Amino acid sequence: MKVLAGFACTLIFMSCFMIFFSYFLKEEQHAKSIEEFLTERTNIQHMPISKNSYIYDTHGDVIAVINKDMNRHYLPFEDIPNLVTEAFIATEDQDFFVHEGIDGSAVIRAFLVNAKAQTIEEGGSTITQQVARNVFLSHEQTYHRKLKEVLYAYVLEKEYSKEKILELYINTMYFQHGLYGFETASQVYFGKSSHELSLAETAFLAAIPANPSHYDPLTNKDQTHARQEWVLEKMKHSGVISETEKQAALNEDITIKYTKQSDAYPAYTTYIEHELKQLIAREDGYIERFNNVRNNKKKTEKLHNQLNERVREVLQSGVHIETSLDPAIQKKAVTTAHTYLHQWQIEGAVVIIDHIQHDIIAVTAGKNYQKYDFHRGFQAYRQPGSTFKPLLVYGPFIDQKNASIYSTVQTDRFCKNGYCPANAGGHYVGRTTLENALAYSYNTASVRLLEETGIQTAFSYLKPFNFSQIGTDDYHYSAALGGLTHGVTPMELTKAYTVFSQGGQYIAPTGIQQVKDESGHVLYEQPALAELVWNKETNDKLRSMLYRVVERGTGQGVRTEGKRIGGKTGTTNNVRDLWFVGFTDRYTMGVWVGHDDSSPMTRIQASQPHIRLWKDIVPALD
């Protein structure tokens, strides 16, 4: 009796609803106002469809796919194979091109079945209704949701073409294992594009969305095959394929080649995502807004959240990020670093820049690096040691005093305001040339030069480099030897060293070249803004001095036959950090090694791991 009563009530309700809905569809004189009312209630202008974004190397090959919420390779309608659309129309909605979003007979039939079973067993939804559910609504099994689905479907049909609705449908269906859209399923389950699928493979994939867990091709392949047969029968019944084609498809073996999404260059692509955030912050005005609320913690936190949401929005829109990655050089840097860091049981990072093109072509992040782990290339702030001397001491001094590389400076013991640095190995040679003072890295000479230049004047030369953790609390004499409050990252320091190969101008190197939307329109690109750090004459002197460091000074270990190399070594107190940052005719490369906890490396100092690592990568830069 209870079942019969429920059946009657449901039938009456559904009949009344269908009569009402059919009535207002026919009322042409009121159509505009009804559409306006429904559009207001349904709000379909914003479609929350998350799409994959792609990162490309310098050759235009995809090196990473970014999907923050859903793995979806979105295809526009013109790129969807006809066989795919035909398969779903045949199985899901044969009257798709005829109805206006709702198939009344199918809905009534579903309600009768559900009322009899006292549960929702049959949907009766058109393709348009399924789009409404997939994009705007939840999948809860209630009549309330079903009613909203009908209303959304009606508005969708008024606002969009049938082709657009099919496009949305094909791209929003769920295929199990976090896969959304037919193209995504094709690439992951078969390792190829949907254009390359056979009829059998197309029907096999078309079987999954009806019940993704039940028709899971990895765990329930037999059930998927059974549904595939049903799909093929529907396609034959609709005239899409012949009996012969159906039988041939049924006889074809289906081989799953499940291909998990991979990132071959996680150290580089993680950095690119960081750089993208910086790029968006600058181009969308967030940096200026941060500066305006610098002392307001609450407003600063709110801005950070807004920036993170903006980055997420950009990535979910399906952008294409073109980068400067050189895969061969990246592989060489990663494998070489992996070998040495494991051998010496230390950590480290390598940054390689094409200073002619201002491109970051490779970066490593540490041994055994996994995507989004702590990235030592751009997140490790370390004391730079003597590698800081050319930037903070010698460059400003020569530029201010118009000094010659043969001008002399005292290397004997020196104290200033209680600060008394010592030279490595206790070597004090009296007066020596600036060239020799840098080549042999005399600390006392560096502090004297900094004093003569003036601390504030010397630090003003660092402004173009945008060292993120350097501030007024670093304005002391120990900075001449790289003694900073927080330090610099390998990325920051290597980028700064490109000034020596740019005639004294600094053009910030970048990994991102352009960020484009799905249509190929440029959304963001890096401006090549040149800032003069010091004049060309000063820069020529500095290059000559840095060449001498390698020819006869502390950097002799990196000498390589056939290459002229300039650069500077750096060692911090108790050998907590070892650096070499240098350049060839085309490339600037920085190497840092150390322990994350800053424990000493005295045991391996004589092996010169930083020198050997730098030198072993250089041949790949030919």
From TrEMBL:
SUPFAM superfamilies: beta-lactamase/transpeptidase-like, Lysozyme-like
Catalytic reaction(s) noted: [GlcNAc-(1->4)-Mur2Ac(oyl-L-Ala-gamma-D-Glu-L-Lys-D-Ala-D-Ala)](n)-di-trans,octa-cis-undecaprenyl diphosphate + beta-D-GlcNAc-(1->4)-Mur2Ac(oyl-L-Ala-gamma-D-Glu-L-Lys-D-Ala-D-Ala)-di-trans,octa-cis-undecaprenyl diphosphate = [GlcNAc-(1->4)-Mur2Ac(oyl-L-Ala-gamma-D-Glu-L-Lys-D-Ala-D-Ala)](n+1)-di-trans,octa-cis-undecaprenyl diphosphate + di-trans,octa-cis-undecaprenyl diphosphate + H(+); Preferential cleavage: (Ac)2-L-Lys-D-Ala-|-D-Ala. Also transpeptidation of peptidyl-alanyl moieties that are N-acyl substituents of D-alanine
Main location: membrane
Ranges where the Penicillin-binding protein transpeptidase domain occurs: 348-587
One CC-aspect GO term: outer membrane-bounded periplasmic space
MF GO annotations: penicillin binding; peptidoglycan glycosyltransferase activity; serine-type D-Ala-D-Ala carboxypeptidase activity
UniProt keyword Glycosyltransferase, yes or no: yes
Domain Glycosyl transferase family: 60-236
Protein's UniProt name: Penicillin-binding protein 1A
Keyword Ion transport (UniProt): no
One Pfam family from the record: Transpeptidase
Coiled coil, from the record: 290-317
Compartment(s) of residence: Cell membrane
The organism of origin for this protein: Alteribacillus persepolensis
